[in-house]
Amino acid sequence: MARYTGPKTKIARKFGEAIYGADKVLSKKNYPPGQHGLSRRKKTSEYGTQLREKQKAKYTYGVLERQFRNLFEKAQRSKGITGEVLLQLLESRLDNTVFRLGLAPTRDAARQLVSHRHIVVDGKVVNIPSYTVKSGQLIGVRERSKSLEVITNALSGFNHSKYPWMEWDPATLSGKLLHLPERADIPENIKEQLIVELYSK
């Protein structure tokens, strides 16, 4: 299954943000990677700014170009503001939902849990990370996987109340997608309008 497997700190430094979670290197090297990272750079063009925002969104959610374009086209066909709908589609991916529920420390770890058949949707095992979770669906951990160290460690001290569009049941290690998140509730620092402008050219 294709995904980005390169150095994550390099990507985080490129955008100047910890898009993969806490990154200690950023506090020491808060400038782009490469031998010219510290030197003055040319002003980024409008196209460059838009492309950078799209790349940031792709790396943040772990989606490759073809998948991302397909999601954008689906967002365009949907009712509502295209940029917001795009983020909602990214948020409703199964791997991202598992991450938001606190079952995994990162989206990569969540993707692995899904691929290795540790996650169930409405009681049935789903091993497709890009599966779109719908409102009302119950996401849980497979019975024999509930004692996995990666899951118990991730859940330890996790604050489930920070995502108001989700409901969590600690007794069953399962959560429900109550509704799609509003843009104001999505914590990612992504300027989705720039992505819309890029694809609209």
Folded structure, characterized:
- The chain has 201 residues and is an alpha+beta fold.
- The protein contains nine helices and five strands.
- The chain has a five-stranded antiparallel sheet with strand order 2-1-3-5-4, with no helix packed on it.
- A hairpin with a 2-residue loop joins strand 1 (119-121) and strand 2 (124-125).
- Helix 3 crosses helix 9, helix 4 packs across helix 5 and helix 6 crosses helix 7 (107-115).
- The radius of gyration is 18 Å and the shape is globular.
- The model has no long low-confidence stretch (mean pLDDT 87).
How helix-rich are the residues, as a percent range? 40-55%
Query: What is the overall pLDDT average?
Result: 87
Label the structural class: alpha+beta
Major sheet details: 5 strands, antiparallel
Number of strands: 5
Please state the overall shape, judged from the principal axes of the Cα atoms: globular
The fraction of residues in strands falls at 5-15%
User: Uncertain segments of ≥5 residues (pLDDT<50)?
Assistant: none
Count of DSSP-assigned helices: 9
Gyration radius (Cα, Å) is 18 Å
Give the strand order, joined by hyphens, for the main sheet.
2-1-3-5-4
Intertermini distance: 30 Å
Order of helices and strands: HHHHHHHEEEHEEH
